[in-house]
Amino acid sequence: MRRRITSFVLGLGIAGASLLVTTGSAQSHGYTDAPISRQQLCGNGTVRNCGQIQWEPPSVEGPKGFPARGPVDGTICAGGNGRFSELDDPRGGAWPATKVTGGQSYTFRWRIEARHATTDFRYYITKDGYDPAKPLTRADLDPQPFLTVPFGGRLPGSTVTHAGVLPQKSGKHLILGVWTIADTGNAFYACSDVTF
Fold first, then answer.
1. Which residues contact 80 (CB under 8 A, 6 or more apart)?
2. 28-195 in CATH: which number?
3. 81-93 pLDDT tens trace
4. pTM score, two decimals?
5. Which of 25, 61, 184 is CA-nearest to residue 116?
6. Which residues of 168-187 are buried (b: 16+ CB within 10 A; e: fewer)?
């Protein structure tokens, strides 16, 4: 009897460990915190009613190849992942925004929780006339990234920073950060609302 109880408890421990490995932050990878991303705003409790992303801010992973491929329009901020669809909800344009200045140097920062061989980091910005009250589409973005940082397959550190010059814009915009992984078919997506 004692042997059966020990085996049962051991089996529960293994099942629990397997569950931990396949769910939650064990699959997390990275997100931008400068400018602060929507997923971090949910994760730190600044924005409420965020669903699962509040526990998994670094997990916004989707197909790579943006903008030719990748998440479909209207699902870009969630990386095409329906579990995180709250990130695609424009909330009437009321997402908190980081104040920035066009034409000025800015240091972008990613927090990396699981390192991957990296192709590059790319930063896109919305066009003039962007409506922050609507879900993000490719047509809303300038077609070329304003900053591309090649990484040549190297592994990033736990914090990655990139200095770049912000485009000349005014009003509310959105910056889309895309971290492209070299050895998988995926990339990580981070939407940051900004006000110029």
1. 62, 63, 70, 71, 72
2. 2.70.50.50
3. 999 999 999 999 9
4. 0.85
5. 184
6. ebeebbbbbbbbbbeeeebb
